[in-house]
Write a structure and sequence with these properties.
It is found in: Endoplasmic reticulum membrane. With about 240 residues, the chain is mainly alpha-helical. Helix content is about 60%, strand content about 5%.
């Protein structure tokens, strides 16, 4: 249990969650000094509150990629990870870059003129703005659906913030867009489709774990989010913007 020492053991009642049953826990482990640490046992399910505090970060990441609920609970409730905003911006930059590349491929203009270069740069910023609006509308669709279906779940501001953080973190799959395009081959469109599905599965697991819901409701919220997102895309296309 050497790795557990960096996590912090005691906190207010309910500050942590059991990764198995989602029950509230006051501590993750107890420090008996002289380097002796013991992982706390959950009072509800009688299992270790968080076995991942002894795991290597790579193992935790692999479990998160496999969309294991326990790994999601560990990351969301029992660690002080604070990269939500930066990760979201980086993912949006990746998406904007992919769209920008596809736009360049479709407009076979190789003129080195400064005006053309500035226009191309503006195209990238435009793609970033569109990707941001689409992502925002997707999240708004999810929040509206969940608030409508389970209003008791999102009563407090802290619940909204926690769910937003969970959704932002669960978009990490979009980082795979860059290698999918760098190593471009005939299967790139298929890879992009798989990445989209993987991100949606991650979003679903994040909603399920954060609000402790069944499997169906998160997918219903995601479906409504996609409808709203595609509505924004249609709006841009009617305006005449390439998306």
């Amino acid at each position: 249990g050497g790795r557990a020492g960096s996590r912090g053991g005691m906190a207010a009642l309910g500050a942590y969650r059991c990764i198995e049953c989602n029950g509230a826990a006051a501590e993750l482990y107890r420090d008996y000094r002289r380097g002796v640490l013991r992982i706390s046992i959950c009072k509800s399910c009688q299992k270790p509150v968080d076995k991942y505090i002894e795991y290597d970060p790579v193992i935790i990441l692999i479990n998160a990629v496999l969309c294991k609920a326990q790994a999601y609970r560990h990351i969301l409730f029992n660690t002080k990870i604070n990269i939500h905003g930066k990760l979201c911006i980086f993912c949006l930059l990746c998406e904007a870059y992919i769209r920008w590349l596809q736009l360049q491929d479709s407009s076979q203009n190789t003129d080195p003129d400064d005006l053309i270069r500035y226009a191309k740069e503006w195209d990238f910023y435009r793609m970033f703005g569109i990707a941001t609006l689409e992502q925002t509308s997707f999240f708004i669709g999810i929040f509206i659906t969940l608030w409508w279906m389970t209003p008791e779940m999102l009563k407090r501001k802290s619940d909204f913030i926690l769910l937003l953080k969970a959704l932002l973190l669960s978009t990490y799959g979009k980082l795979l867009l860059i290698p999918a395009v760098i190593w471009e081959h005939d299967y790139t469109p298929l890879c992009l489709a798989f990445i989209k599905v993987f991100v949606l599965i991650s979003n679903s697991q994040a909603i399920r774990v954060t609000l402790n819901l069944n499997r169906i409701l998160p997918w219903f919220a995601i479906f409504f989010g996609l409808i709203l997102e595609n509505g924004v895309v249609c709006l841009f296309q009617k305006i005449g913007w390439d998306v």
